[in-house]
Amino acid sequence: MTPAESATVASSTVDVLIVDDDPLVRAGLSVMLGGAPDLRVVAEAGDGAEAIGLVRQHRPHVVLMDVRMPVMDGLAATEALRALDDAPEVLVLTTFDADEYVLRALRAGAAGFALKDTPPPEIVAAIRRVAQGQPVLSPAVTQRLIDQVVSAPDHSRRRRAAAERLALLNDRERAVALGVGQGKSNAEIGAALYLGVSTVKTHVSAVLTKLGLNNRVQVALLVQDAGELDDHR
Q1: What share of the chain is helix, strand, coil (3-state, %, to 5)?
Q2: Are strands 14-19 and 39-45 parallel, antiparallel or unpaired?
C-alpha cells in the first residue's frame, strides 16, 4: 500500500471510545466493532469521568455512551464532552428505548441512541451515521420521546422558553428548523423551500449558532418543545 493509500484508509477510519461500567459489555462491543474494517476502538472507559480523560487523550470521532454508571453518569459525561471545542459525536447505549435519561442525553447533545440488544450490523451502521453527523432516531422511537416531552410536568414552561428561543430566527431559518424537526434531510428541506442543499446547510449552521445548539437532534427537540409540529403532523 502506498503512503497516499494509507493516508486515505486512515482518514476514513472512525475512532470509537466505548463507555460502559460492565466489563463484559465493553468486551463484547469491542469484539463486535473489531469486525468492521472502517471502525477502530481506541479505548474503553468504565464511567463518564474516565471517558472525559480518554477523549482528551485519544480524540475519538464517536463515543458509545452508557447512561447509568457510577462516579459520573452518561448524561453528565455527554454534556461535558459536547462542550469541548473538538467535541466527539455521542451515541447513547441504553436498555430502554423510552428511558428518561435518553431524552436528557439528547438534549445534552447526543446524536442518537441504540439499544444494547440491537443487532451488531445495526450498531455498526449507527456509528457510521453518527460519525457523518447524521442523527440516529427511528420514527417510532422519536414519537415515544415526543410523548415524554408532551407529558412532562414542566411542559408549559418549556414550551414558552422554546418559543422565545425560536423567535431569534428569521422566517427562512425558522422554516429550515421546522424541516429539521420533521426529520427531513437537507435535500428534502431544500426541495420544499426551493433552496439549494448548500443554502440549506448555511441556514442550518445559522440556526445552530443562533440557538446555541450543536446538532440537529437538539433543533428537533426544541421545535417540538415549542409546539411547532402540532399543526404539521
Answers
A1: 55, 10, 30
A2: parallel
The burial class, CB within 10 Å (0-12 / 13-18 / 19+), for 205 is exposed
71: left (phi over 0), alpha (psi -120 to 50) or beta: left
Task: Say if CB 41 and CB 33 are below 8 A apart.
Answer: yes
Residue 232 has pLDDT above 60, yes or no: no
The DSSP code for 17 is: E
- Residue span(s) of the chain under CATH 1.10.10.10 come to 154-225
The chain-wide mean pLDDT, for the chain, equals: 85
Weakest mean pLDDT among 40-54, 146-160, 174-188: 146-160
Q: Which CATH architecture has domain 3-144?
A: 3-Layer(aba) Sandwich (3.40)
Which of the four CATH numbers 3.40.50.150, 3.40.1000.10, 1.10.10.10, 3.90.550.10 does domain 154-225 have? 1.10.10.10
pLDDT of residue 8: 38
Sequence ranges of the chain with CATH classification 3.40.50.2300: 3-144
Cell match 451502521: residue?
125
pTM over 0.85, yes/no: no
From residue 90, alpha-carbon distances to 23, 67, 112, 158, 175 in Å are 20, 11, 7, 24, 27
Q: Are strands 39-45 and 89-94 parallel, antiparallel or unpaired?
A: unpaired
SS3 per-residue string spanning 143-183: HHHHHHHHHCCCHHHHHHHHHHHHCCCCHHHHHHHHHHHCC
